[in-house]
């Protein structure tokens, strides 16, 4: 895995991702302090609205932005997005109203809706070998979890010597360094489509491919399962730690660190598990573990109260490991489910649809925890995750890598596809990807 960091293209791209994530982590903390400075005790409502705007931008704008930018060079898209995000971070210390915060967050997340899917679709072209790509997914997961662990620590040290507005400068530096690293890195050319098609078809192409592919329909259900449990952890851990256990703020970092540590440990062993068992078994097993642990904890707390603190940390460690087992392999499924010309659109569909799941589960976790109590909310979200897991198993049957036998009566006998895959009396079978020749999955 370390050898990947020496790759002349992937190494700088990973470094760009890491510094941008660090800058984003600093901004998250600074944004919370800015909200309190502007709204006082209503800061939670401000942040909740800001994060809802973030999700709406991801869900609604990412397919449109991708369609607008798909003909632009990848380097221009990535660097442009970083420059816009740096400019927004530079403006945030000078805002005077909550409305200005909402506007700037919308612009920033619109830029992220362009950057992230483009970056994700680029990596399979940089690392065409599946084993190398799997290791890259592991490194990406480690980067996200390290950001969750290190950014609060870095912010805490900086706040000893500067005001919270100075953290936004760190965000600007993070995005600026990311842009410089991308500028200096030679990127592979974007694959070109011979017939791009009308704009609206370009907007919806990724979603059509995604929803027509069984393994990706299963992935969508697994995204909902992971979001249900992940939302409870991210939204309600602070309430559990401070109100239920009556512990000071540093223990919140310990609880979230346990979740992150579990995710990192799982990410490190995933390349071996995926090679031996395959994506479907690993992802469904991880989701099953996540559902079982969350429902067991919810029932236990409803009957007997919350367990001892060290047991709660162990549960969060296990949930983090299972969460990583569900989320990390997603890129592998997308990589083998789309031609390289369609990958940006399909990665964008995954980006939008997965955040739609979070848009549903975040309010359920927050409002449910307040109105129904933590135990009932955890059981409710666990049942949603269980239903999504059942749907994933049905939508993604075993053995779907090869399609059922099918024919192409609409193609001429000398078509290149029929030459590559000769027809028998009953049709033919091959590894299938949804495209112009196969607009639907054969039944």
Q: What does this protein look like?
A:
The protein has helices at residues 10-39, 43-69, 74-91, 98-126, 130-158, 165-184, 199-212, 214-244, 250-277, 279-304, 309-327, 330-335, 343-371, 374-395, 416-420. By secondary structure, the chain is an all-alpha fold. The protein has 2 domains: 1-189, Growth Hormone, Chain: A; 201-397, Growth Hormone, Chain: A, CATH 1.20.1250. Helix 7 (199-212) packs across helix 13 (343-371), helix 10 packs antiparallel against helix 14 (374-395) and helix 13 (343-371) packs antiparallel against helix 14. The longest helix has 31 residues, at 214-244. The mean pLDDT is 85.
Describe this structure in a few short sentences.
It is a multi-pass membrane protein. GO terms for molecular function: transmembrane transporter activity. The protein has 443 residues and is an all-alpha fold.
Q: What structural class do helix, strand and pairing data support?
A: mainly alpha
CATH superfamily of the largest domain: MFS general substrate transporter like domains
Q: Name the CATH architecture of the largest domain.
A: Up-down Bundle
Segments where pLDDT lies below 50 for 5+ residues? none
Number of separate domains: 2
Largest sheet: none
Question: Total number of helical segments?
Answer: 15
From the N-terminal CA to the C-terminal CA, the straight-line distance is 40 Å
Average predicted confidence as pLDDT: 85
Helix content: over 70%
Radius of gyration: 22 Å
Name the CATH class of the largest domain: Mainly Alpha
* Global morphology: globular
Q: What is the chain-wise order of helices and strands?
A: HHHHHHHHHHHHHHH
Number of strands: 0
As a percent range, the share of strand residues is: under 5%
Might you state the CATH topology name of the largest domain?
Growth Hormone, Chain: A
GO molecular function, one term: transmembrane transporter activity
Membrane topology: Multi-pass membrane protein
Main location: membrane
InterPro entries: MFS (IPR011701), MFS_trans_sf (IPR036259)
């Amino acid at each position: 895995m370390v050898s990947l960091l020496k790759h002349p293209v992937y190494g700088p791209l990973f470094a760009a991702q890491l510094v941008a994530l660090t800058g984003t982590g600093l901004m998250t903390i600074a944004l919370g302090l800015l909200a309190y400075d502007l709204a006082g005790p209503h800061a939670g409502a401000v942040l909740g609205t800001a994060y809802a705007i973030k999700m709406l931008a991801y869900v609604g704008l990412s397919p449109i932005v991708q369609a607008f930018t798909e003909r632009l060079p990848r380097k221009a898209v990535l660097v442009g997005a970083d420059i816009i995000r740096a400019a927004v971070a530079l403006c945030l210390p000078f805002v005077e109203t909550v409305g200005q915060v909402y506007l700037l967050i919308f612009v920033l997340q619109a830029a992220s809706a362009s950057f992230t899917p483009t970056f994700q679709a680029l990596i399979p072209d940089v690392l065409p070998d599946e084993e190398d790509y799997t290791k890259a997914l592991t490194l990406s997961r480690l980067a996200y979890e390290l950001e969750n662990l290190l950014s609060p620590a870095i912010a805490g040290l900086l706040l000893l010597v500067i005001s919270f507005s100075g953290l936004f400068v760190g965000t600007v530096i993070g995005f600026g360094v990311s842009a410089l690293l991308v500028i200096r890195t030679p990127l592979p050319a974007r694959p070109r489509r011979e017939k791009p098609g009308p704009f609206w078809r370009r907007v919806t192409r990724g979603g059509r491919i995604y929803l027509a592919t069984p393994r990706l329909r299963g992935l969508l259900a697994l995204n909902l399962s992971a979001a249900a449990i992940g939302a409870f952890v991210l939204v309600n851990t602070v309430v559990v730690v401070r109100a239920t256990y009556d512990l000071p703020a540093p223990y919140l970092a310990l609880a979230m660190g346990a979740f992150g540590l579990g995710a990192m440990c799982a990410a490190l062993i995933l390349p071996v598990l995926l090679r031996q068992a395959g994506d479907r078994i690993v992802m469904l097993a991880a989701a099953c573990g996540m559902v079982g642990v969350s429902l067991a904890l919810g029932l236990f707390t409803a009957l007997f109260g919350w367990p001892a603190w060290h047991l709660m940390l162990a549960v969060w460690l296990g949930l983090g490991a299972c969460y990583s087992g569900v989320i990390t392999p997603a890129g592998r499924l997308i990589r083998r489910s789309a031609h390289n010309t369609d990958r940006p659109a399909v990665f964008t569909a995954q980006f939008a649809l997965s955040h739609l799941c979070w848009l549903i589960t975040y309010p359920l976790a927050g409002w449910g925890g307040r109105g129904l109590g933590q135990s009932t909310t955890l059981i409710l979200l666990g049942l949603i995750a269980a239903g999504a897991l059942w749907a994933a198993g049905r939508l993604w049957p075993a053995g779907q890598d090869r399609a059922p036998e099918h024919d192409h009566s609409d193609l001429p006998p000398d078509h290149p596809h029929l030459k590559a895959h000769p027809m028998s009396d009953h049709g033919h079978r091959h590894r299938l990807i949804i495209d112009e020749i196969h607009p639907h999955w054969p039944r």
